[in-house]
Specification:
Blueprint lengths: L3 E6 L3 H12 L4 E4 L16 E2 L10 H20 L3 E2 L3 E5 L5 H14 L5 E4 H7 L7 E5 L3 E3 L1 H14 L3 E3 L2 E9 L2 E8 L4 E11 L5 H5 L11 E10 L8 E4 L9 E4 L5 E4 L3 E3 L11 H9 L10 E11 L11 E3 L1 H4 L4 E5 L5 H16 L1
Parallel strand pairs: 1-2, 1-12, 2-9, 5-14, 12-20
Antiparallel strand pairs: 3-8, 4-8, 5-7, 6-7, 10-11, 11-12, 13-16, 13-17, 13-18, 15-16, 19-20
Helix pairs in contact: 1-5, 1-9, 2-9
Length: 365
């Protein structure tokens, strides 16, 4: 006997999407979240971009989940009244040396199954975004922005409508394998401890996932790394109507321009490797933003950037290493029945979330 059939650890956007999929499939689901709010770590501290699926190698989990996830997400938004906007995105080359990378991205996207990209030359770029000074770009019409908090509230609503629940202020201290499933030690926000048993367990805890799985025999979690991404806000109105990304850089996609649903422009994220989580934004880091942004938008005014916020990518590779794919370890990987552990779910985790939910359901089924 178990206290509950399925426990999901982590009420970020991916954990909520997984729990929703499991509940709709008929499972009894409880989500444990250590914070007092849903989605208060990585899910609340990103660019809120719905990605097209350009950057991910064919055959990778990111490619397999981002493309269908994008279509599922737009459909979900339409059906549930979630605010979003298909802004489109330009990936720009500001000099000749960047053209091979732009061409590689285009070929990779085509091989992945993304066939709606357009190539803009300098003249076309000037027509659509006169403020930019670049020699070429890839235009992605299916890229957009979303109200991520509204989306997470809708996921929670679907979960609860199908009998599931989210328990906030519940920190998981330890997980043990039992003959019947899993035993979980939980500490509540007021310091009370309790033990909970379940038949199935999904670890979707972002930064904490590798540590939570470390005690499970055979789970073999990866090492966790922290890559902070700082954002700066533009004072005043941006003369741009689309998202603008430079060609990618190691560890991230470069200092890019995104817009929120109110049209406010933000710049970032950069890549700052850190040892422990903190959400302070060092104003001095903004000085490096000016040169990066002026490489494609030379008209950026002096003293126009102010610190906004930051997020921390849950990396499973360190500085200088090639980018890692999503890692979703089900029973076929670790031979622990009823366990799915997710590691390194950074971008495009938001875009892929509904597809990830379906993937986890399939692994548990």
């Amino acid at each position: 006997m178990h206290d509950i059939e399925t426990v999901v650890i982590g009420a970020g956007v991916v954990g909520l999407a997984i729990a929703r999929a499991l509940a709709i499939a008929g499972r009894e689901v409880m989500v444990l979240e250590r914070h007092g709010l849903i989605g208060s770590e990585t899910s609340a501290r990103n660019s809120e971009v719905i990605h097209a699926g350009i950057y991910y190698p064919p055959g990778s989990l990111k490619a397999k989940l981002c493309l269908p996830g994008k279509h599922l997400l737009y459909q979900f938004c339409d059906e549930n009244g979630i605010a979003y906007k298909k802004t489109g995105k330009l990936i720009v080359a500001s000099n000749e040396n960047q053209l091979p990378e732009l061409e590689r991205l285009h070929a990779q996207a085509e091989a992945t199954g993304l066939h709606d990209l357009e190539v803009y030359d300098a003249k076309k770029l000037k027509e659509v975004e006169p403020a930019l000074d670049c020699i070429s770009a890839l235009y992605s019409p299916s890229t957009g922005i979303i109200d991520s908090h509204g989306y997470m509230l809708a996921l929670q609503g679907h979960l609860e409508a199908h009998g599931g629940q989210v328990v906030l202020g519940s920190s998981v201290d330890r997980i043990e394998k039992t003959p019947e499933g899993y035993a979980i030690e939980v500490t509540s926000a007021d310091g009370d401890s309790m033990a909970l048993t379940c038949r199935e367990l999904v670890i979707s805890a972002g930064h904490a996932a590798p540590g939570l799985a470390a005690n499970l025999p055979g789970a073999n979690p990866p090492k966790a790394y922290l890559a902070k991404g700082n954002y700066f806000k533009l004072q005043g109105k941006a003369p741009l109507s689309r998202l603008v990304y430079p060609v990618p850089e190691p560890g991230g996609s470069g200092v890019h321009i995104t817009l929120d649903l109110q049209g406010q422009a933000r710049f970032g994220p950069d890549v700052e490797w850190i040892e422990r989580i903190n959400y302070d934004v060092d104003p001095a880091r903004g000085e490096k933003f000016y040169a990066a942004i002026r490489s494609y938008w030379p008209g950026l005014p002096d003293n126009s950037l102010v610190p906004d916020y930051c997020g921390i990518r849950p990396k499973i590779v360190g500085p200088g290493e090639p980018a890692a794919d999503f890692r979703i370890d089900g029973p076929e990987t670790h031979e622990l029945e009823g366990l799915v552990a997710l590691y390194g779910i950074e971008s495009p985790g938001l875009t892929s979330s509904l597809a990830i939910g379906n993937d986890v359901l399939e692994r548990l089924s």
